[in-house]
Amino acid sequence: MTQRAQSGPGRRTLLGAAAVLGTAGLASAGTAAGPAHAAERGRGSYRDLPVPTVVGHRGASGYRPEHTLGSYQLALDMGAHIIEQDLVPTKDGHLVCRHENDITGTTDVAGHPEFASRRTTKKVDGVSLTGWFTEDFTLAELKTLRATERIPGNRQENTVYDGRWEVPTFEEVLRWADREGRRRGAPVWLYVETKHPSYFRSLGLGLEEPLARLLRRHGRHRAGSPLLLQSFEPGSMRRLAKLVATPRVVLLSGPTERPWDFVESGDPRTVADLVTPAGLKWIASFAQGIGPTLDLVIPKDAAGRLTEPTTLVTDAHARGLVLHPYTMRNENTFLPADFRRGTDPNAYGDVFGAFRAYFETGIDGIFSDNPDTALLAAADFGKR
Ligand code: G3P
Ligand code: CA
Questions:
Q1: What confidence tens digit (pLDDT) does each residue in 267-311 have?
Q2: Taking residues 235-248, what's their average pLDDT?
Q3: Which domain covers residue 310, as residue numbers?
Q4: What pTM did the predictor assign?
Q5: What's the domain count of the chain?
Q6: What is the arithmetic mean of pLDDT over 137-160?
Q7: Which of 327, 329, 364 for mutating ligand 1's site (highest number of atoms within 8 Å of CB)?
Q8: What is the pLDDT of residue 20?
């Protein structure tokens, strides 16, 4: 594995990236002056992370129920460079780690008769959903639930851990990261996503202000803090840019989709517009990176096989943006068709081949449910 400053032939160097970055990255560093915190003492910025950077997606969610302390701990123990949290609020405004506010599929809430009447149907970002939602539970109520495996049909082994862990608050994760950082003598990097920020703001549960308060309290509010912020809504990153200097990443979904804050504000731009040079230039005015789908980096054909890479890596790097695409998973069913092995959708395919194909595009990192595999693939790539 290489450090960014030593990245391979034809790839952007650390110094090059920093020079290009200038505006959004370095200017914001000066806005959050204050005493150095234990979380960041002696460490550089996200630009010093190993490349390719391995992000433990929802922890080590290939092996443990996602967004639990068990999943985060395993990702850390495996050596993941950064560990991801998705955040949603409770009714009383606490930030908790869940991929979505509908907790039907990742907790045992359906087995709690005392909450049966909370099951409801609501529209979130234009999509009608029926289930139980974090914003209808106080933190104390949510803490009576236990996390369960999201995709037991694919990951039956993970179901042995159902019921073992609570839904963690983000504050608990920060405390865990501080503790582990002290124990290891190196900060634990976190990659924190605001989920459905416009929707929650409309309920009076804006995410960014309480998140910024927590980041300040734990010394992760500076440009050099060991944390990256991310959102599918550019507006959330722009709002956070005014509150903290922590680096920001704009997530990008399918080309025809529009960020939900664009839908609400009447901004006609789609993801296809945001990945043009003009769109990337706009993103670089308030963010330091993008998190595109893997398909935006290498599209697939009708049979699900990889085709030719797009120019996204080159175009983003030209604007000083790092790229951390999502999401690699080891099971055949989640891999490009050319890397599947055998006919069992849940068996592992040629994951190293798939990682290599993506790394060869020059991406800076990758989200993976299987951080151990991703780290080995990254090490192989660095030895070329
Ligand atoms: O945040 C990167 C990746 O996790 C985005 O997709 O839906 O898994 O949060 P999602
Ligand atoms: Ca995420």
A1: 999 999 999 999 999 999 999 999 999 999 999 999 999 999 999
A2: 98
A3: 3-36+45-382
A4: 0.90
A5: 1
A6: 98
A7: 327
A8: 30
The span from the CA of 326 to the CA of 334, in Å, is 12
Q: Could you tell me what percent of the chain has a pLDDT over 70? A: 89
Atom 3 (ligand 1): residue with closest C-alpha?
Answer: 326
Give the type of residue at 77: D
What would the mean pLDDT of 76-103 be, rounded to a whole number? 98
Q: How far is the CA of 251 from the centre of ligand 1 (A)?
A: 8
Q: How confident is the model at residue 384 (pLDDT cuts 50, 70, 90)?
A: confident
- For ligand 2, an ion, list residues with CB under 5 A: 86, 193
Report CA-CA distances (Å) from 167 to 57, 68, 347, 357.
16, 6, 29, 35
- Minimum CA distance residue for ligand 1 atom 6: 326
Is the CB of 178 inside a 6 Å radius of any atom of ligand 1?
no
Our answer on whether the CB atom of 367 is closer than 6 Å to any ligand 1 atom is: yes
Prior bond to 52 cis, omega within 30? Answer: yes
* CATH number, domain containing residue 191: 3.20.20.190
Distance 198 CA to ligand 1 centre (A): 17
User: Within 10 A of 244 (CB to CB), how many other CB atoms are there?
Assistant: 24
